[in-house]
Amino acid sequence: MKWAGGKTQLIPAIESYLPENIKTLQDLNYVEPFIGSGAVFFWFIQNFEIKHAIINDVNSDLISVYRSIKTAPKELIENLASIQNEYYALRSEEDKKTYFLNQRTLFNSKSETEIVGAALFIFLNRTCFNGLYRVNKKNEFNVPFGKYVKPKICDAENILAISELLQKVTIFNGDYENTLNFAGENAFFYFDPPYKPISQTASFNAYATGSFDDTEQRRLAVFTEKLTSQNKYWLLSNSDPKNINPDDDFFDQLYDKPSNTIVRVKAKRMINSNAAKRGEINEVLIMNY
């Protein structure tokens, strides 16, 4: 899926900072408590020998997509193909916008089956502005129309391939701390939480009802300490407040533990209404090794 804050571009940096012995660990379990679009997850499970994987997210609509792909890929493909045919038949941008808004209303009604809801989620993701996922206080998806001429809505081959990968994956929908109850001894956790905003206009934390504020960032840091105490590996990515304020040591102080390592890596800021403000910035990678 298109995803604001997706980690595809960070994969080379993440790979270079994985534990040195990760390829030799027996019965390796991979855990990603904030799955999002799963760029790192899909890369990891295709490049490392794992016994089992666990993915989780608080976003129930997103998790419904993963469940549908895992358990009913062909039915999902049929629904997406129907939507794609209807959308491609529309000639004017105004007609496509109207269709988009009608599907968004249907999606927000929560009146459809999980499979249909998952198909609507994917359609909205492919046709909304910048692939954002944002909800209002009523937990209604409210991202506007993206004006794409002919986006790929039904990618049957990809869905079938993902379904096969998901067969050895346990999927949860809830608080990230619950994943620890199901992680094995040799577990590697990758955390991609909602990023700490580095400007007043950069917050995409309306990803689900509630917010992931500094209090939540601190709770996550406490959770990582618990993982360390149980000899589990973890790596976390986040924004770097020093991009805006060189004296902002929020993460440096929060993760200032003898076992932890903090590095800064380059990433491209892809979303900004002002093109001049797109470009390279630092992100932090934090790990307990």
Task: Write up this protein.
Helix 3 crosses helix 6 (114-127), helix 3 packs across helix 7 (156-165) and helix 5 (93-109) packs antiparallel against helix 6 (114-127). The protein is built from nine helices and seven strands, in the order H-E-H-E-H-H-H-H-H-E-E-H-E-H-E-E. The protein has a seven-stranded mixed β-sheet with strand order 3-2-1-4-5-7-6, sandwiched between helices. The model is unreliable at 272-277 (pLDDT under 50). It has 289 residues and is α/β, with parallel strands linked by helices.
Topology summary:
Elements: H1 11-16, E1 29-32, H2 39-47, E2 52-57, H3 60-71, H4 73-88, H5 93-109, H6 114-127, H7 156-165, E3 169-173, E4 187-191, H8 214-229, E5 233-239, H9 250-254, E6 261-269, E7 279-287
Parallel strand pairs: 1-2, 1-4, 2-3, 4-5
Antiparallel strand pairs: 5-7, 6-7
Helix pairs in contact: 3-6, 3-7, 4-6, 5-6
Quickly describe the structure:
Helix content is 36%, strand content 16%. It has 289 residues and is an alpha/beta fold.
